[in-house]
Amino acid sequence: MTRSEIDTLIEMMAKLPGLGPRSARRAVLHLIRKRALLLTPLADAMQQVAVTARECLNCGNVGTSDICDICASEKRATGEICVVEDVSDLWAMERAGVFRGRYHVLGGTLSALEGVGPEDLSIPRLIDRVASESITEVILALNATVDGQTTAHYIADQLEGRVRLTSLAQGVPVGGELDYLDEGTITAALNARKQL
Amino acid sequence: MTRSEIDTLIEMMAKLPGLGPRSARRAVLHLIRKRALLLTPLADAMQQVAVTARECLNCGNVGTSDICDICASEKRATGEICVVEDVSDLWAMERAGVFRGRYHVLGGTLSALEGVGPEDLSIPRLIDRVASESITEVILALNATVDGQTTAHYIADQLEGRVRLTSLAQGVPVGGELDYLDEGTITAALNARKQL
């Protein structure tokens, strides 16, 4: 068999996170079967996104305008900034629908091992924003990993005294069972126990 | 947030087999980050495939011409037809690289429950081919499921006496451990044991 456009497509699909060669083959066969319903519209949608997608110049969110809807909305000028590692974390926060302020996407975490310093992330820009947007609270919603916490500490050091600094609470996940939780989480939940 | 092209793309990606909403989001963010390297080429490749992909009129394989490379190749006119349920099975056989004949893709299995009869599959076309292509052997490479085996029996009934009928051997998978095999496989492997 000669290498066809189909093989090329399978190879490209296999590079997506969460897909391997086998699932890429399945997806491509599915797409070919639903050509009019799925393949052509999907190709069009990708072309559209390739043209319109851009990073918000203010917070780093991914959207279709230079300033994202959240940064553009006056309703969200609450004086609170929620700092997240990645756009996917921002989207996760938005799905919860509980935070009414604005965001700041770092684009990763500090990592001595991988040579990621503060300038490689958008930390200087965060410090500018705190000054220029009359921010009163910075919520550090970084992942509870070593790199995430190191980065949180660094940012807290930089902003110390200028603004109220908070981080997400640690504890038992809603619907979680103690038996399945690690010791660290149980320790954190016990230490932060609440009066009933 | 207003519904943007990005949300549309995520929704479409989530419909692919093997992807759900979360992995679709991850994939789309990955694509946006690698716009020039991945998103635009992928959109182009999909557009290409949407235009060029077609089913082989002879065997049902998916390719880019009306008669697929396998059916077109004189080298593969060995008088053997390997009957498979689906194009993905054909591709799996081709990856093994051991079968030198041609294929016939049924497009599914007979199923009384779902109302799939012989005319819904390409069984009549298979019977035609056996007559017209001077076929000497039909290898039934259907899945070892109830529906697959029912379909194999039906085809065997139809072709009885006209051609040599075979099916894939059942037994221990290469690299397989007995402890992890079901009783049916062990029984089949024992019954088909070979003299050393």
From TrEMBL, chains A, B:
A zinc finger (C4-type) spans 56-71. InterPro entries: DNA_Rcmb_RecR (IPR000093), Rcmb_RecR (IPR023627), Rcmb_RecR_Znf (IPR015967), TOPRIM_dom (IPR006171), TOPRIM_RecR (IPR034137). GO terms for molecular function: DNA binding; zinc ion binding. Keywords: DNA damage, DNA recombination, DNA repair, Metal-binding, Zinc, Zinc-finger. Residues 79-173 form the Toprim domain. PROSITE patterns: TOPRIM. Pfam families: RecR_C (PF21175), RecR_HhH (PF21176), RecR_ZnF (PF02132), Toprim_4 (PF13662). The keyword Cell inner membrane does not apply. HAMAP family: RecR. May play a role in DNA repair. It seems to be involved in an RecBC-independent recombinational process of DNA repair. It may act with RecF and RecO. Belongs to the RecR family. This is Recombination protein RecR.
